Automatic annotation (TrEMBL):
Protein family according to the UniProt entry: Belongs to the TrpA family.
Top EC class, one word: lyase
Name by which UniProt lists this protein: Tryptophan synthase alpha chain
Single GO molecular function: tryptophan synthase activity
Keywords noted in UniProt: Amino-acid biosynthesis, Aromatic amino acid biosynthesis, Lyase, Tryptophan biosynthesis
A GO cellular component entry from the record: cytosol
Highest taxon listed in the record's lineage: Bacteria
Assembly behavior: Tetramer of two alpha and two beta chains.
UniProt EC number: 4.2.1.20
Pathway(s) this gene product operates in, as recorded in its UniProt entry: Amino-acid biosynthesis; L-tryptophan biosynthesis; L-tryptophan from chorismate: step 5/5
Described function: The alpha subunit is responsible for the aldol cleavage of indoleglycerol phosphate to indole and glyceraldehyde 3-phosphate.
InterPro entries: Aldolase_TIM (IPR013785), RibuloseP-bd_barrel (IPR011060), Trp_synthase_alpha_AS (IPR018204), Trp_synthase_suA (IPR002028)
Catalytic activity: (1S,2R)-1-C-(indol-3-yl)glycerol 3-phosphate + L-serine = D-glyceraldehyde 3-phosphate + L-tryptophan + H2O
């Protein structure tokens, strides 16, 4: 199965069980790639349906302070994209949960666009999220990811207008990631306000599953947002636990993941 098929199969499975999917984000290399490997295994065990690994980058414009600090820890210990791809290859051998990579465009360009898509697919990565690349400039990476069988997961914001939304949804694969608020990760704004409207609009444009993320950290918030979509993404809430407990965060991360998953069982 290629990445697009892997994600489709996972969403079908979750839907068949009458649940919503939990997408758990952690920053790769925080506090070390060794701990990232253990955290991915714990998240898999605890019921995460998809795991999103963030590639650390010096200028994470879409990220709030919690993830910025995680990125700094990961960069300080020398985490590289090549190291993350090696880790991914290792993990996808052992863990059934599909892995997606979130990376800003710069590290991908430095690595080499075609080489990156090729190596990511070979490592078993299912899809990529590139938050700072507008659709207008995404032609080359769309072509490379399609060739490699990697899902290109688009991000849409509350401010994305109807026509752009249609073009973005048509170009994407895997799922559509709807950002709940106009802002950065780890937001404390009300996350249920706009998501109903955006999710509905996206659903009218595509058959792809719809995920919502930004500012969702508790089981209550997850359940409230899940009413409108197929999946919820939780990042900063996990990263905060990793910040506090470092290499010993497996247990607390598992606990939060199972509580969140429980809330998505409806
Ligand atoms: O941290 P939050 O508020 O739970 O939001 C998810 C988010 O962390 C994750 O998907 C993510 C981390 N960095 C990003 C950059 C852009 C888009 C999404 C992300």
């Amino acid at each position: 199965m290629n990445g697009i098929e892997l994600l489709a199969a996972r969403f079908a499975q979750v839907k068949q069980r009458g649940e919503k999917a939990l997408i758990a984000y952690i920053t790769a290399g925080d506090p070390s790639l060794e701990t990232t490997a253990k955290l991915v295994a714990s998240l898999d065990q605890a019921g995460a349906d998809i795991i999103e690994m963030g590639v650390p980058f010096s200028d994470p414009v879409a990220d709030g302070p919690v993830i910025q600090r995680a990125v700094n820890r990961a960069l300080a210990n020398g985490t590289t994209l090549a190291g993350i791809l090696d880790l991914a290859a290792n993990l996808t051998n052992k863990v059934a949960t599909p892995l997606v990579l979130m990376s800003y465009y710069n590290p991908i360009l430095q690595y080499g666009l075609d080489q990156f898509c090729h190596d990511a697919a070979r490592a078993g990565v299912a899809g990529i999220i590139v938050p700072d690349l507008p659709l207008e400039e995404a032609g080359p990476i769309l072509a490379a990811s399609e060739l490699a069988g990697l899902a290109w997961i688009p991000l849409v914001a509350p401010t994305t207008d109807g026509q752009r939304l249609a073009r973005i949804a048509a170009a994407g694969s895997g799922f559509v990631y709807c950002v709940t608020v106009t802002g950065i990760t780890g937001t404390t704004q009300d996350v249920t306000g706009e998501i109903g409207r955006i999710a509905k609009e996206v659903r009218s444009l595509t058959e792809l599953p719809v995920a919502a993320g930004f500012g969702i950290g508790t089981p209550e918030q997850a359940a409230a947002v899940a009413r409108y979509c197929d999946a919820v993404v939780v990042g900063s809430a996990f990263v905060k636990l990793v910040e506090k407990q470092g290499k010993d965060s497996m247990k607390v991360v598992s606990e939060l993941a199972s509580q969140l998953k429980q809330a998505l069982k409806g």
